[in-house]
Specification:
The complex is a heterodimer. Chain A is mainly alpha-helical. Chain A contains 9 helices and no strands. The two termini of chain B are 28 Å apart. In chain B, strands 1, 4, 5, 8, 9, 10, 12 and 13 form an 8-stranded mixed sheet that branches. In chain B, strands 3-2-11-6-7 form a 5-stranded mixed sheet. Chain B has 7 helices and 13 strands. Chain B is globular, with a radius of gyration of 19 Å. Chain B has 2 domains: 38 residues, no CATH class; 258 residues, Sulfite Oxidase, Chain A, domain 2, CATH 3.90.420.10. By secondary structure, chain B is of the alpha+beta class. Classes of the chains: A mainly alpha, B alpha+beta. The interface between A and B is medium-sized, with 28 and 35 residues. Protoporphyrin IX containing FE binds next to α2, α3, α5 and α8 of chain A.
Chain lengths: 206, 325
């Protein structure tokens, strides 16, 4: 058993800092003029990748906790989810401010017309209520069950993120396919767990 | 044949977004005169000599140029779409390093009276090399300005003497999975069928702006840019510029290009640069000029036919460019 204060006092701050490293790294590269030939594309893709990675890392907490028995992992989940939201916001800002240069009509047209942007934008919007209800006070106000039901939206958001990626590539789907596979594993595990739970419960009643 | 020198900037080429960048945007000294039809009876001094690397000698400068600032050598040679060598834009520069461009043969065949298979050096020899500074607009909404070295494709086609059945020209890239990792069969692959195929209508292929390039920046074409021989059609999206060509075939029917085969609703046969016809997944109204438009600048407006409307619009009179995208 890991001591409680060790998690709050050491592990959490450590994971916080580590989660900021990708952001710090790209800011560093931006200032060092090292974003390659197409800097905006680099920023946009980099932040998109990290958004999806943090979503998947967040989704990995529960399976990992069940398999390993490290129940303290759950205490990192909220922060990881908020980092997914953070990177999603930065990703959106690189698109809206740098790529589209505040051109609101063009942005709205993109959201309405381009399916991959529509899906990405929907995923970002759906992340907002989850971020807003991530505080302890909100969990209490909503009640555990309702809170949990709301936060299941993250499954939909992650599927949205992967579909967004699949729909934006020109022809080489290998990278988004890899993310899709990982996501399928993470969601599949949950399904298996639920089904197993259901059969156990049924078995117990008999 | 003379490429007309526009007397004034045509209004379609003026866009508020970059007026301050380039005030006089027009083709300058666009003299292709005296080149076409000059094939027979070349003196040895005019004959092109193609080394396998390094500087190209005897290149005539300024035959077609523009006011736009030329993109840096580094950007032109490290940011490439050449899926045969990987789908990341930095892949070709590293994966094509050992690509062998000698010996190299080019077949000119199909509906013509003088089909032949040439050694690269023989293929290039009859033509005078000239520098052509062209805008290059990628379908992904970025652009460059590239100083190609090459010669008009029209000369090659005239030499082959197309028959009346020749309506289109089909180009094929080398198929060599051993050298081109992107062509190797894999679980998913790159989503394109190999070898890469492109095509032009015969009149597009005969247009004086259409060239076969063997160099950039006065040097032999680096492998990642499509060595030893590639097509450049400046008013079309970059993917029409097929690289590492081994076959040029005159055909009666419209060829099915690789990108049409991969996604017909996204990539048409013509692929003319057109700010008013969007790619289904992204807008084509604007573009980012590599190396110039920085982190905090708006994209510039894309020009009809990539700014070459004056020279090529007449090829498409009466055509619905929305339908024939
Ligand atoms: C949860 C939300 C989102 C996730 C997980 C996500 C993820 C991604 C990923 C993984 C990429 C590909 C990066 C690469 O090529 O390596 C990407 C690219 C992109 N995303 Fe997002 N994204 C999200 C939301 C958005 C939103 C809200 C917008 C804009 C409204 C957006 C616009 C784009 C654009 C324009 C690209 C680049 C397309 C290109 O380079 O052709 N994304 N995103």
């Amino acid at each position: 058993m890991v001591p409680r204060d060790w998690i709050g006092g050491v592990l959490k701050p450590l994971v916080f800092v580590v989660s900021l490293v990708p952001f710090a790294w790209i800011v560093w590269r931006a200032f060092a003029n090292d974003l390659g030939t197409n800097p905006i594309e680099t920023l946009n893709r980099y932040t998109g990748d990290w958004t999806l990675r943090f979503l998947l890392i967040t989704l990995a907490v529960t399976p990992l906790r069940r398999i390993s028995g490290w129940h303290w992992l759950i205490r990192l989940r909220r922060m990881l989810g908020l980092f997914a939201f953070f990177y999603a916001c930065v990703h959106f800002l690189t698109y809206a401010l740098l790529d589209q240069y505040f051109n609101l009509p063009e942005i709205l047209k993109d959201i309405a017309k381009r399916p991959y942007i529509t899906v990405g934008f929907a995923s970002l919007l759906l992340l907002i209520p989850l971020a807003l209800t991530s505080t302890n006070a909100m969990v209490r106000r909503l009640g555990g069950r309702r809170w949990q039901r709301l936060h299941r939206l993250v499954y939909l958001i992650s599927v949205g993120g992967v579909v967004h990626f699949l729909w934006l590539v020109k022809s080489d789907i290998r990278e988004p396919a890899l993310y899709a596979l990982i996501l399928a594993g993470l969601l599949g595990y949950r399904l298996w767990w639920e089904l197993r739970g259901a059969t156990r419960a049924a078995g117990g009643q008999a | 044949m003379l490429i007309k020198k526009p007397a004034e900037i045509s209004s379609s080429e003026i866009t508020p977004a970059h007026i301050y960048h380039e005030r006089r945007r027009f083709l300058r000294d666009a003299i292709a005169a005296g080149i076409i039809g000059a094939v027979p009876g070349l003196t040895p001094a005019e004959a092109a000599v193609l080394p396998s690397s390094g500087k190209l000698a005897g290149v005539r400068k300024g035959s077609v140029t523009i006011v736009d600032k030329v993109t840096s050598y580094k950007d032109v040679t490290t940011y490439n779409n050449f899926y045969e060598f990987g789908t990341d834009k930095s892949d070709p520069a590293s994966n094509a390093r050992g690509f062998r461009t000698r010996p190299w043969t080019i077949a000119v065949e199909g509906a013509c009276r003088r089909p032949a298979v040439y050694q690269l050096e023989d293929f290039v020899r009859p033509y005078a090399l000239e520098e052509r500074i062209y805008r290059m607009r990628c379908v992904e909404a970025w652009s460059m300005v590239i100083p190609w070295v090459g010669f008009p494709l029209a000369e090659v086609l005239k030499r082959a003497e197309p028959t009346s059945r020749a309506k289109f020209v089909e180009f094929t890239t080398l198929h060599d999975p051993e050298q081109m990792p992107g062509q190797r069969p894999g679980l998913l692959g790159t989503g394109l069928d190999w070898p890469y195929v492109e095509g032009l209508r015969l009149d597009e292929a005969m247009h004086p702006l259409t060239i076969l390039a063997v160099g950039v920046f006065g040097e032999v074409l680096p492998n990642q840019n499509g060595a030893p021989l590639r097509l450049v059609v400046p008013w079309k999206y970059g993917f029409k510029g097929i690289k590492s060509i081994v076959r040029i075939r005159l055909v009666e029917r419209q060829p099915l290009s690789s990108w049409m085969q991969a996604a017909l609703h996204e990539y048409g046969f013509y692929a003319n640069v057109n700010p008013r016809v969007d790619h289904p997944r992204w807008s084509q109204a604007r573009e980012r000029r590599i190396g110039e438009d920085g982190l905090f600048s708006a994209k510039r407006e894309t020009l009809m036919f990539n700014g070459y409307a004056e020279q090529v619009a007449s090829l498409y009179t009466g055509m619905d460019l929305r339908k024939y995208y």
